[in-house]
Write a structure and sequence with these properties.
The protein is of the alpha+beta class. It is built from five helices and five strands.
Length: 145
């Protein structure tokens, strides 16, 4: 267990951290904008609405007391499969070596929460450089876990 995995806290996205979650951006360019979609992902606002409408679970992930990641996961009722719908790492925390640790923590939480054997991940095809970096560092190579 590395230092980061001992310090991260997976918390519920709720009314207490609503604005903090909405303001976490994956791209510096998006920092001063409120949009439905950022460059690579839907905005956190979009996914919070999806959680409410579709019964998904919003997760706010903190490093000590600083929000660094927002994730959404749950049962996709159309496919009847458990999915990690989105995971947004704040732009100022990218490239610091915490992404894979957080991804593994979220997947472990999902496996416990849903007692499922498979978890499906969304992968953005044009975002290969980041995907390949995660694969090199030990993240799952397939979209089914």
């Amino acid at each position: 267990m590395n230092l980061i995995s001992r310090i991260i806290i997976l918390a519920e996205g709720n009314e207490k951290n609503y604005w903090e979650v909405i303001n976490l951006k994956s791209d510096l360019y998006q920092e001063k904008r409120i949009q439905i979609f950022e460059r690579w992902v839907g905005s956190n606002t979009f996914f919070l609405a999806g959680c409410q409408a579709l019964g998904l679970n919003p997760r706010a992930i903190y490093f000590r007391e600083t929000l660094i990641v927002f994730a959404t996961h749950g049962l996709n009722k159309e496919t009847e499969k458990y999915e990690l719908i989105c995971i947004v790492l704040g732009h100022s925390f990218q490239g610091k070596g915490c992404g894979v640790t957080i991804l593994k923590a979220v997947i472990n939480e999902m496996a416990e929460m849903y007692t499922c054997k498979e978890i499906y991940l969304s992968v953005i095809y044009v975002n290969f450089s980041k995907k390949n970096q995660k694969i090199k560092k030990g993240a799952p190579k397939k979209s089914v876990i």
